[in-house]
Amino acid sequence: MLNLNNRLNDGSSNKPRLRMQHSLWGLGKLPMNAATEWTLDEKFARVRSSGFEAVECWLGNNDEMEVKRALDRHGLRLVLGHRPFSLDDVRETVARAVRLGADFVFAQPASAFTPEEEVVRLVSEGRKIANDNGLPFYVETHRNNFTENLPQTRRLIERVPDIGITGDLSHFVVVGEFYGWEDEHAESHMDPVLRCICHLHGRISNGEAVQVDVGTGDCNEARFFVRLWSCAMQYWLQHAQPGDIFPFTPELGPPRYAITLPDGREFSDRWEQSLVMARLAHEAWQNATKAGGEAQ
After folding, report:
1. Structural element, H or E, at residue 123
2. Residue 188: helix, strand or coil by DSSP?
3. How many domains would you assign to the chain?
4. CA–CA gap between residue 180 and residue 228 (Å, rounded)
């Protein structure tokens, strides 16, 4: 059973809603193939004017204040990501989140080869550390982490059934080599994870590459992910309370994540694609509410 106290909530009596946020990492090396990268202020101005409300960041002591001040200048909220191998790693990030006023923390836990018992303790006690400081704590599904494949992630959910998940489903799709075909039963295999998702990362895989350009979002790959996202949102809405917020983040990484031409130039405009991801997320949300997922 999902821990309902581990949800992002603004303290209002408003209906549960979708919140769009962006990734600072995904804003790297933009604009596309330009000689000069946008400054932080240029990036955040574009993020804000395009309807995003927050930015996900991985910060250290050397850059936390620069980024925080830029976010504040543009009226953007902060979310912190990290990759903990120990509870001290969690404590450090939670302390930073409290100091900077972040809304929640998400974690890419340990490695795929870390013993299961260690990961269970890391995510269970890590969440308690965050929750005790008033912060939701989510575990991201991601390659090269314990959660890199469905069997391991499903076992983790069995051990920690009230876990909250940051779902980057592109990793499951590329590791499992799913194409979205009916006889793959991808939705069924992912169902235990979809039921725990409290936060989504918008990246689309075609089953071979983890991040592909989906054009205007009409291709089969995009439609497959809209189905997955809609399902996760519908489950979340079934238990949603007034003031609850479901965050969605287009997270399209720069090279080497992004596929490039032999000379290193990108041929997919990640900024424009992030706007496509945001539109697809709104479509998925509408599908979820129409399907009866909204809390009564």
Report:
1. helix 116-132
2. helix
3. 1
4. 10
